[in-house]
């Protein structure tokens, strides 16, 4: 899928964002089949991919993160899986298991693909991407409800997400959540996370870049997300983090 066609598809996601907010954690948020190369059924690449997905399915739940490579040369497959930092091990396993099944249904025979859920993401490619910020695979979601004072609200959102970024990039999980009181009746909730193949400095760079997209993503909206292949943020005016 080309970047232009991906972005067109993303526009339709924005229009349907309220419906997506009501989706359960078992519903994919989005997926991209990004490789220009294909593999065939029963080929060495196909076998290696399935072996890698087996590894990620078992490796990820205990810590919420897994990565690995299987095979050699042009048949080598690289992949990672990441669960949201507040998600329990059992729910992490369920999400990665579902992601494995769904990504193969949505991107059959593509050598590179990524799928996002509310609780996890799964990515694989014939290109070794570990330690590199993925700025190509990205989408936005936002709440269609707007706030009364966009300028002030936007600044509050940026301040909270920046504060969470400064905590996340120095943590072992590259993950942070928090909240901020806005007046007497409104609380702003936020979450930021990076994939753990990134260095601390690249995590911060990735999140700073995502936060810089706030005007494009969700200007004056009650809730929003920038979700990428290496990092993501979310904010809402209702609690969404798992206690």
From TrEMBL:
Pfam families: Stress-antifung
InterPro entries: CRR_secretory_protein, GNK2, GNK2_sf
Gene3D superfamilies per UniProt: Gnk2 domain, C-X8-C-X2-C motif
Keyword Secreted listed: yes
Subcellular location: Secreted
Signal peptide extent: 1-25
Keywords for the protein's UniProt record, in alphabetical order: Repeat, Secreted, Signal
Any one GO cellular component localisation term in the record: extracellular region
Main location: secreted
PANTHER family attached to this UniProt entry: CYSTEINE-RICH REPEAT SECRETORY PROTEIN 38, CYSTEINE-RICH REPEAT SECRETORY PROTEIN 38-RELATED
Family statement drawn from the similarity comment of this UniProt entry: Belongs to the cysteine-rich repeat secretory protein family.
Name under which the protein is recorded: Gnk2-homologous domain
Organism: Dillenia turbinata
